[in-house]
Amino acid sequence: MRKLVVLTGAGVSAESGIQTFRDSNGLWENHNIMEVASPEGWRKNQELVLNFYNQRRKQLGECQPNDAHKILSRLERHFDVHIITQNIDDLHERAGSTQVLHLHGELLKSQSTVDPSLVYYLDHWEIKIGDRCEKGSQLRPFIVWFGEDVPMMESAIEIAGAADIFLVLGTSMQVYPAASLIHYVPKGAKKYLIDPHIPDFKLQKDVTVIQETATVGMKKLEEILLNS
Question: Among 31, 32, 49, 63, which is 20 to 30 Å from 166 by CA?
Fold first, then answer.
């Protein structure tokens, strides 16, 4: 079974109603991104950061997987599908995808502020001031913020390096180190890019571009893959 590796970004979740920040001048739900997605923002105002992500969880609860998510899940019948996502929502999993690696963390988990290895599934939709890990420290969102290391990057590189088919879906290819994954894909692999906005930089010559939204583009690619 051929290995299909998919790098997904905000454009996939956007069609389910989850707002992105890169299309709105660095604002995320009317917040300066550094106030709510950086260690400095956390040190400055923990309550603001916690409330921000509590609202994101509430929003996520009102969203459903879209056709792009569902097609990726359906393709598991024909391919060994591995999804590497920059998104922090659980829409891939809710659509039925079984091999999902989250590069930038997961909204529905919390993390110790003194021991990053202590990660907990949230059994409710909120993290509050005073919620502590087993070592007594305040819990924070399990999110990789700007300026922090991306601990899952090595695993992602290994997955990309074994791809027979590599797809970039709904991402601007401007967020590093995630955008570098395409350079680890074997030379003989087929490469596709689906996004309504083609990146300004020069793409590799062997990348097939489908200039569509995630849902429309995935319908086209599904047909291509199943007939190739």
Answer: 63
In a domain, 93, yes or no: yes
Say whether pTM exceeds 0.70: yes
The answer to whether residues 97 and 76 touch, using CB atoms and an 8 Å cutoff, is yes
Q: Is residue 149 domain-resident?
A: no
* Per-residue confidence in pLDDT tens, the chain, 228 aa: 999 999 999 999 999 999 766 554 555 767 888 999 999 999 999 999 999 999 999 999 999 999 999 999 999 999 999 999 999 999 999 999 999 999 999 999 999 999 999 999 998 889 999 999 999 999 999 999 999 999 999 999 999 999 999 999 998 777 778 889 999 999 999 999 999 987 665 666 789 999 999 999 999 999 999 998
Inside any domain, residue 48: yes
Are 121 and 199 contained in the same domain? no
Structural domain of residue 84, as residue ranges? 1-18+66-104+154-228
What the block records as the tokens of 104 is 């930038």
Nearest-CA neighbor of 60 among 89, 94, 33?
89
